[in-house]
Amino acid sequence: MSRVMNFNAGPATLPIAALERARDELLDIEGSGMSILEHSHRGKTYDAVHTEALALVRELMAVPDTHDILFMQGGASQQFAVVPMNLLAEGQSADYVLTGSWSKKAFAEAKNVGKARAAANAEKDGKFLHIPGEDELELDSSARYVHITTNNTISGTQYAKLPDTGSVPIVADMSSDIMWRPLDLTNVGIAYAGAQKNIGPSGVALVIINKALIEEGRTDIPAIFRYKTHADKDSLYHTPPTFGIYLMRNVLDLVKKGGGLAAQEKKNREKAAVLYSAIDANPDFYRSSIAKDSRSMMNVVFNLPTPELEAEFVASAAKEGMVGLKGHRSVGGIRASIYNASQLAWVEALAQFMKTFAAGK
Known about the structure:
Helix content is 36%, strand content 17%. The chain is α/β, with parallel strands linked by helices. The protein has two domains: 16-257, Type I PLP-dependent aspartate aminotransferase-like (Major domain) (Aspartate Aminotransferase, domain 2, 3-Layer(aba) Sandwich), CATH 3.40.640.10; 261-359, Aspartate Aminotransferase, domain 1 (Alpha-Beta Complex), CATH 3.90.1150.10. Strand 5 and strand 6 (127-128) form a beta hairpin. Helix 2 crosses helix 7 (242-257) and helix 3 (75-87) runs parallel beside helix 4 (101-113). The longest helix has 21 residues, at 260-280.
């Protein structure tokens, strides 16, 4: 079997060992005579997987006792609406920092639910090229929360550190950089993420939420959308995405055995350094418009001199077994997504390909 070098932005590459474990257990998990796909979510076999997955999230992310961990459905896009549905009561407002397409969508959903304002907008001439500094934020000290998107898959920007929002809790969409490094969750009211970039397959949304926000949540919304509903039932209020959670467990078990998030950060920074060095070594051919202090460690975006060369680059790379390099349709260019499970050898191969490709033009 020949596996490609997968640079897709999501669903993204998964650790081969996690997939092999799923393959080996697919027909019969732990001698039960059934696949995990067939087990009741109320049964002992699945419950052990569910409990282990929750424990791994808490351990790897050092989630404090003040926070609950939820497995939900609907992806991050549903959380765009669920967050304000739970937190924004009449007369309250939330601040949103706009750093890309997904934060704009989250902002639009919040305005559908209640009152929300843009505390900063990094868009200029239709592009997002940097993360606003704290001096650019116009925060409301009475805001219910400050929403940020920690990594922007389309524009290729990322927060180097979380902003200081004072006593106002941060709500962070971490869909494309969850668990890429250790993170202090003390002032994070909610961290949410679709699993399909760094920690598992599509279909699972991870939500880490301060218990105080759960208790303060609105009760005049449907029960299925209340965080308290899911927290009270350990994410088993209704049938969860059992196979997705099982595969997430497999992935997180490997992260733990590999040294945890500190070791993961070291690997991720090494991969990003290789790729950005290849770009910076030939600025006349490979152009990155992203401010260097805002460059993403997860999604590396750049351009070639012409769209025609970019199309040729993508096609030629595919012949070398490198897939998923075409930039998002809204911005074009090239995008290499180098999430946790991507391998250093792949990035080194891409960097060498970039050198060879440019030399031939």
